[in-house]
Amino acid sequence: MLCPNCESVNRDGAKFCDECGFPLTGAIAARAAEAVETQPEAESAAEREQAQIEGITEAIDAIEEAVSEEPDSGQLEDAFEEADTENSEENLANQVDEGEAAPEEDIEAPQNLDPDVTVALGNDLAGLDVIEDEYGERVVGPDYTEPQANWRDGHTMQMPRVEGEEAPRSKDFLASSTVEQGKSKKTIIIAIVAVVVIAAIVAFATYQMELWGGKAVPDVRGMTEADATSVLEESGFGVRSTQVKSDDTEGLVLIMDPNAGSRAEEGSEIVIHIATAREIPDVVGKTEEEAVALFKEDGYENVTYEKERSDSAEGTVLSVSPEAGTRAKSTMAVIVKVAEPYVVPDSSTLDLDGTIAAIQDAGLAYDISYYDTTDYVEGTVLGTEPAAGTKVQSSTVVVITVARARGVQLTQLTRDLLTPGYELNIDGTSYIISSLDSVEYLGGDQVSFTATARPYTYFFGVYVEGDPQQVSGVVNWTADNQLSSIS
Question: Is the entire prediction scored with pTM above 0.70?
Fold first, then answer.
């Protein structure tokens, strides 16, 4: 259906133009179509537009009477249709009376051409074109432009409001329905949000009033045990106290469980931790590991563990300073002495004097044992007994074994043997040694000597002693340092 106002193509049965909203049926549409059809071909586009406006105005004036009594939407639609019918018949009669409706018989009108249009055109079709489209054949002017289809969503458009008293409409438009639906949804959402906010406010207020969620636990930190117990019991809670060692003032509440300000059911138990002074724990006789755990449990931060040699079991605490039971803060310096065993020192890289000093530093006594050998240098420390690294009691005597050469050993044995008064026999003569003059190691098991001695004999049973004289000889020893002979 072609709009007489903007010439846009609309769907069949539409009452208003989808493009401009102009009525497509009724008196207004008829007057507009009449104005277009009755315009001379020579008129300009502007003149035709003016004629259309005038036709619309006349149509509006024609229906104002029909709507003056505020008919309902059905009456208004009937008035439009009646005005359209009367207007069409009246126009046709006027055209016949004026002689404009008698076409020449030798001019063939285009097929499907509306009779009113044919009457309006008269017999002169010069300069006009005949086109054929989905509506059939039509006669158009030389400046005709093919209208553009403007298909929308299938609903009619609402007409602009007519000045004056508004006529009732037969039906609402989709746009209004959509807006109302949108407003309805928005209203529902706002209502839901409002309900949620109000519920939250009410819940918060009743919670603050302690109508639900338990009661707030009062803060009793810093109070004495008696005062804290009284406050909590007045608030409807049970109380249990426990001691905790601290540097703070003794007897005051340090910690609460649950914390102050939290919620708890009326009648539930609140645990208060009361400060008590620290005391040095009694760790003497305990192991070092046990002492470490006790001091850590009591919160001491400055504890030193020192080793001390003792016959007690290794790792046993021997003493603690300050003494056990002394009140002390966590930062006080505490010294704990722990037993360690006596250990024979290593002398493998030391000489005899160094070995003796090491044994004394280890708190032990020592003794020396010589070992005769030609495999080591004289005076070499061959080892100790017990061996180096052995854990021993404090009363243990460590024996140092020292290498001694054979010559020194035998020379010393010879000096120990040939002392003044010793009797010996050399080449059949008996002597009594007065003094040992010299000793010399000959090698192997032999040692030579020179001594001053007096010869003696018995003559018929009478002892006869001669004058002192110097004699020499050789002493022979066995491998186990026993005297073999003197010659």
Answer: no
